[in-house]
Automatic annotation (TrEMBL):
Co-factor note (free text): Binds 1 FAD per subunit.
Stretches assigned to the Photolyase/cryptochrome alpha/beta domain: 6-135
Family, similarity comment: Belongs to the DNA photolyase family.
Keyword Oxidoreductase: no
Keyword presence, Flavoprotein: yes
Gene from which the chain derives: phrB
Name of the protein: Deoxyribodipyrimidine photo-lyase
Site residues (Electron transfer via tryptophanyl radical), renumbered to this chain: 315, 369, 392
Pfam families recorded: DNA_photolyase, FAD_binding_7
Gene Ontology biological process terms, A to Z: response to light stimulus
One GO MF term: DNA binding
Source organism of this protein record: Arthrobacter ulcerisalmonis
Amino acid sequence: MASTDKTSLVWLRDDLRLDDNPALTAAETLGLPLTVVYVLDEESAGIRPLGGAVKWWLHHSLTALATSLEARGSRLVLRRGPAGDVIRQLATQTHAGHLFWNRRYGLPERTVDADLKAWAGENDIEASSFQANLLFEPWTIRTGAGGPYKVYTPFWRACLAGEDVREPLAAPESLPAPAPSGRGLPASETLSSWRLLPSSPDWSGGLGETWKPGEEGAAQRLGDFLDGPADDYGTGRNIPGTEGTSRLSPYLRFGEVSPFRVWREIRNRYPHQVPADVGIYRSELGWREFCWHLLYTNPDLATKNVRPEFDRFAWESPTASELDAWQQGRTGYPFVDAGMRQLWQTGWMHNRVRMAAASFLIKNMLTDWRVGEAWFWDTLVDADSASNPANWQWVAGSGADASPYYRIFNPVTQSKKFDAAGKYLREFIPELAELDNKAIHEPWGLLGVDGYPEPLVALPESRERALDAFQKLKDA
């Protein structure tokens, strides 16, 4: 085909939005026939298969994205398989002269992208990639010695001392029609054929009641946060019984809102000076950035201790019934159990409770952090390749800038401090709802408590066991 007959191909990944999508904007600017594709890739080497809750979200997010594209004259093509092979095939079918995507930061994903960019160069296709999902790309933030940061505070300080965060791009008002392939438009698989939604049984009812996946839901959630909890975020973020957090994490995970848009909306609300509480929220965005920088440097973050001395740690294997008790929220400790039940019902857990539940599994039950990371990977709607393992390693003490292993969250103390009136506990543990505000935190052996289990482990003894194991690691 003549060069004037070439088309554009945009490959969307974890950037399921039209707003502030540099790859899509660059393609739209060319004005050539445009194919937009999403590839479900669980076959390329090293690509981690998606968890069940993430699959549920992805189904609804792609549905919303397809509707948005169609409203602008475009269409979403769905393909499944090894992404490199799929994109090569589709680029050939549509006579693509230009290939666009937004960059990814995990090693398997970068390998696919690098191979594809090399193939494009060999086949007279211009491949362009863009910064879209991180405010600061990993190779741009380095210590004075030229290496990666291993401690969060100086990392974030270096981020803020550099170039200002770019302005977000407006969503295109219209898009070029899709590129024809052979006798018709590029073939697309049906979303239903991917079977992303759970069945037999369908456990997603609570997810549907809690979340509105898609770009519209993300914009609504961001507006609600800035109109409400943002001004008291510093204290509100620690109280699980209130709406004190942004709950933007799944939207950021799927790229339904960009961090650049979040950053700009905060500045728009506070043009002169960002209040301290809102600054704390921005530092949480910084922690998300730090997690991705850790993954960039440590590609095996989900399976390998960042601190190699933890390879010698004497983990104990829980019995099937013990692990079930933790997963199902039946440990006998209300703060942990409420969190685990919230996770199962909604696909999300308050961060304060996440830390307590993770600490209980790792330290009181002496269970390898990878066991918990795998459960969260399957049940969290916001599980991503960086934050999920990085935060589990933080609790375990095996990660970069990690919480010391000897910091052991006491679930009773946490409950009394951050849910004093038991509002959170009552919401997710109805069998304790009638207890008073004192008894609900330690309900063991009380009359009228029907069906709630006795503690799975004793806190003092399990704490000492964990500290002894850590001391043996230090002495080894």
